[in-house]
Write a structure and sequence with these properties.
CATH class of the largest domain: Alpha Beta
Order of helices and strands: HEHEHEHEHEHEHEHEEHHEH
Helix content: 40-55%
Number of domains: 2
Radius of gyration: 21 Å
CATH topology of the largest domain: D-Maltodextrin-Binding Protein, domain 2
Oligomer: single chain
CATH superfamily of the largest domain: Bordetella uptake gene, domain 1
Structural class: alpha/beta
Number of helices: 11
Length: 311
């Protein structure tokens, strides 16, 4: 009986000094992507506040499923966290019949720290400078004009573009934004859907055809919205948050809630995000949970009217 009573006390004591070693922050996409830069900036700021190193571990593949499943199945001790997105926490669950994790049951939200719009871009090797010219080429060569995507919301954006314009594109899938960008730059694909941050980071290496924001972005004043170009229902945004495995000890959860909030509201971190073309925004754990539920409702409706189907 004494041993049974001692066990939970020892467990609680074990987390009293959290964190006492390096924390892994998994990023489920390839190194060099826009979210990778945000993840590394977040990790540095978070580590400073926790007094321990926070190391980014890239685990790309399968539309973010590999990295997300890794953390979902990890020990809930606070030493394995993940940068999550709309794709990994909402779309994957809606599109995959046999997902390797349950985003609502296996992971718990710790906070949201940023949002980002997307851009449709054209390779400099593709002869089109605006959306009208792109659509003209697509209709002349249905199913032959290629568009680079990396799953999740990028698939939905391409599907919506086809539905709204009556165009047929050749979808080419990559394992993250960085490989998709490289395919656009090399001319391997004609078009690509990328985070808007890439226009800040890579400038004139491609042409921005349209942005998925409701109004023009302050850091891309010359890039028109889709609505300006006569195409409706093309407003999409990704977001970046932090999750841990479900079942974190209360001591650990409290420490992380405070540290995530301080990091997200840090003036230095906010400035870093802005330089990357990412829009800072903070939601605490409770607000983030409600936001996730609303996102699920929103994208369930959007998918009902798209060509994407559960697989």
């Amino acid at each position: 009986m004494t041993l049974l009573l001692a066990t939970p006390l020892l467990g609680a004591h074990a987390f009293a000094q959290y964190p006492d070693r390096t924390i892994r922050l998994v990023h489920a996409w390839a190194a060099g992507s826009a979210t990778d830069g945000a993840a590394r900036a977040f990790a540095k700021e978070l580590g400073d506040r926790l007094g321990q190193s926070v190391v980014v571990d890239n685990k790309p593949g399968a539309e973010g499923i590999i990295g997300t499943a890794y953390v979902a199945k990890a020990q809930p001790d606070g030493y394995n966290l993940i940068v999550t997105s709309m794709g990994t926490m909402v779309l994957n669950d809606l599109l995959h019949a046999k997902l390797q994790y349950n985003p609502r049951e296996d992971l718990e939200p710790l906070g949201l720290f940023a949002k980002s719009s997307f851009i449709l871009v054209a390779s400099n090797k593709f002869a089109a400078t605006n959306l009208d010219e792109v659509l003209k080429r697509v209709k002349q060569q249905p199913g032959e004009v290629s568009i680079g995507l990396f799953g999740g919301i990028t698939d939905l954006i391409a599907s919506a573009l086809s539905a709204e314009t009556g165009s047929k594109l050749l979808h080419v899938r990559y394992q993250g934004g960085a490989p998709t960008l490289n395919a656009v730059l090399s001319g391997e694909v004609n078009l690509g859907v990328l985070p808007a941050a890439y226009a800040v980071l890579h400038g004139t290496k491609f042409r921005v055809i349209g942005v998925t924001s409701p109004t023009r972005l302050s850091y891309l004043p010359d890039a028109p919205t889709f609505a300006e170009q006569g195409v409706q229902r093309m407003e999409f945004a990704n977001w970046y948050g932090v999750h841990g495995p479900r079942g974190l000890p209360e001591t650990v959860r409290s420490v992380l809630h405070s540290a995530v909030k301080e990091t997200a509201e840090s003036a230095q971190f906010i400035e870093q995000l802005k330089r990357m073309g990412i829009e800072p925004e903070f939601l605490n754990a409770e607000q983030f949970a409600k936001f996730l539920a609303a996102e699920r409702v929103k994208y369930t409706r959007l998918l009902e009217n798209s060509e994407l189907r559960r697989r």
